[in-house]
Amino acid sequence: MTDREVKAAEGPLLESKLREERRFEPPADFRERAWVKDRTPWEEAERDFEGFWAKHAEAEVHWFKTWDRVLEWNPPWAKWFVGGETNASYNCVDRHALGSRRTKTAILWEGEPGDRRALTYEDLHREVQKFANVLKGLGVRKGDRVAIYMGMVPELVIAMLAAARIGATHTVVFGGFSSQALRDRIQDAQAKVLITQDGAWRRGQVVPLKQWADEALAEAPSVEKVVVLRRVGDAAGAAMVPGRDVWWHEAMAGAAADCPAEPLDSEHPLFILYTSGTTGKPKGVLHTTGGYLVGTTLTAKWVFDLKDDDVYFCAADIGWITGHSYIVYGPLSNGATVVIYEGAPDWPDKDRIWAIVEKYRATIFYTSPTFLRTAMRWGPEYPKRHDLSSLRLLGTVGEPINPEAWMWYHEHIGGGRCPIVDTWWQTETGMILIAPLPGVQTTKPGSATVPLPGIKADVVDEAGNPVPPNVGGYLVIERPWPAMFRTLWGDPDRYVKAYWSQYPGRYLTGDGARKDEDGYFWITGRVDDVVNVAGHRLSNIELESTLVAHPAVAEAAVIGRSDPIKGQALSAFVVLRAGVEPSDALKEELRQWVGEKIGPIAKPSDVFFAADLPKTRSAKIMRRLLRDIAEGRALGDTTTLTDPAVVEELRQRYIAEG
Ligand code: PRX
């Protein structure tokens, strides 16, 4: 080893000792029919990077006016398709409604109580135009911000596309967020109008969105008008404020049906989406129009191999970037049929998602590893109740997928025949950057494989030097991409500092990764999720994957709690699979298991059996709270949890068990 390699191996990097040997080739018939069958796009992009993007921007997106320059890159400030004019709403709606897809179904929607609606592209065209006129009537002008606080209803999509149509910038706030979170986001964006609904259905209960919106608005005076969709009716008891609030259906009844899409500058702000950073203040990630549309349209087409006869079902919430890019903009821009489900995956029973796949004959399914691990815990009898033979492609996003969850997905959902695309990206990247193209790439369970055509990523050490194969480091993106965020809303300094200062000109993702000898990327998780045990850095994710690979384990979270001797000691919080009995012998077995799989240093000091793990509403395990429990501290902020009771119960039991 050279000095640098020694330093890299000892540096602030992840040690990766878990190896995955399984390989999966694209099935021959899949490859045969796939959009991308060979490596030509990668070669084209390397030969002529800007030419590559120009070619696809031209082919995949409608422009009112073509661009003068493909890219203007003054690091870290990017402009794409400079001088071009387009409109996201036109691309997602008009070009299909006015073309050959007029009567094609755009949205297949299912409410939690079982009600159903189907909207053709023609229907969507009419509704979006009408609502755009409603917004105009409420005083919304190009450049104004419109906040949207709704559940998973078709009107959420209509509202987004209506705002985009007239050049208003939408900011969707996840319907599971509290009134405080909504208030903070509205205040930061200075939104002029809020669109919400009386209430949303969740596990048969009403989520009182309008009531929470009212609480937020008490301290968010920028909002002049509120549009309220009637979804649950009297059950919500929503009170309308005269002069400020209007019902969606009443406003729509009087709206004209014609509202042409406004030609917008390629760099016109399309939306702001808030995401959490390392400080308490959420970051307003800003995406603009032309580049975002090119990036999401092309990646939706290639990564999901989206064809006209596909039925595409993404189980994410539109309140997150996954829903923005891969429920709304990417799929609709491709003219796809998109399934949208309103409610909880275990309502009325744990087979709801699979029932939906069967009912609509979904061909593509996209979800998170957390959901898959949950489904694993529930057991394969739930998917077995349904005919899932329509599926031809599966995807995951949001966190590293444990090889065992990948295999479970492959077998129990994909029937062994569907390629799996593990897609790595972020709110900031706007589009998928690292993922297999399913007709080309051999997959390895747990790896997002390689960067997409045109994307250049690497794994580097503290000083920015590439690390050797299988040594952990920091994941960076080496050059701009069309759907990249352009800044943080109202905070350009933070944009520069948080993402572009450590390695000037290169984008710091905040994730740790390693590349294997084949150049495959293995994302090990956020760099802040690193445990240092006796000077050895281990990835929480790898430890957790190892535990989940044990037949008794459904879910696991591993944290480092401070230890006077080793610096940090590992505590494992483990959720057992249904039917497995907890015992001290099993605790010891799990410790040994991890020791065997990764190395003695990785053996958890203690194993604690939990009924459930505390998760944020975006389904991330909050290790910070587990650390608080393990270290006997008062619990930190629990306001972003799905269910704060989980963590309190865990704490009580942890104390009781000593
Ligand atoms: O840590 C990575 C993880 O999710 C982070 C981005 O979170 P967010 O902005 O909420 O967007 C999630 C949906 C795109 C990343 O920094 N992440 C996302 N996808 C993967 C992943 N980690 C591993 N593998 C993935 N496929």
UniProtKB/TrEMBL annotation:
Its cofactor is Mg(2+). Its EC number is 6.2.1.1. Transmembrane segments: none annotated. ATP binds at G398, E399, P400, D422, T423, W424, W425, Q426, T427, D511, R526, R537. Pfam families: ACAS_N (PF16177), AMP-binding (PF00501), AMP-binding_C (PF13193). The modification N6-acetyllysine is found at K620. CoA binds at R202, R203, G204, Q205, T322. It catalyses: acetate + ATP + CoA = acetyl-CoA + AMP + diphosphate. One of its GO terms (biological process) is acetyl-CoA biosynthetic process from acetate. Acetylated. Deacetylation by the SIR2-homolog deacetylase activates the enzyme. PROSITE patterns: AMP_BINDING. InterPro entries: Ac_CoA_lig (IPR011904), ACAS_N (IPR032387), AMP-bd_C (IPR025110), AMP-bd_C_sf (IPR045851), AMP-binding_CS (IPR020845), AMP-dep_synth/lig_dom (IPR000873), ANL_N_sf (IPR042099). Residues 101-484 form the AMP-dependent synthetase/ligase domain. Residues 42-92 form the Acetyl-coenzyme A synthetase N-terminal domain. Keywords: Acetylation, ATP-binding, Ligase, Magnesium, Metal-binding, Nucleotide-binding. It is an enzyme of class 6 (ligase). It comes from the Bacteria. Residues 542-620 form the AMP-binding enzyme C-terminal domain. GO terms for cellular component: cytosol. Catalyzes the conversion of acetate into acetyl-CoA (AcCoA), an essential intermediate at the junction of anabolic and catabolic pathways. AcsA undergoes a two-step reaction. In the first half reaction, AcsA combines acetate with ATP to form acetyl-adenylate (AcAMP) intermediate. In the second half reaction, it can then transfer the acetyl group from AcAMP to the sulfhydryl group of CoA, forming the product AcCoA. PANTHER family: ACETYL-COENZYME A SYNTHETASE, ACETYL-COENZYME A SYNTHETASE 1. Belongs to the ATP-dependent AMP-binding enzyme family. This is Acetyl-coenzyme A synthetase. It comes from Hydrogenibacillus schlegelii (Bacillus schlegelii).
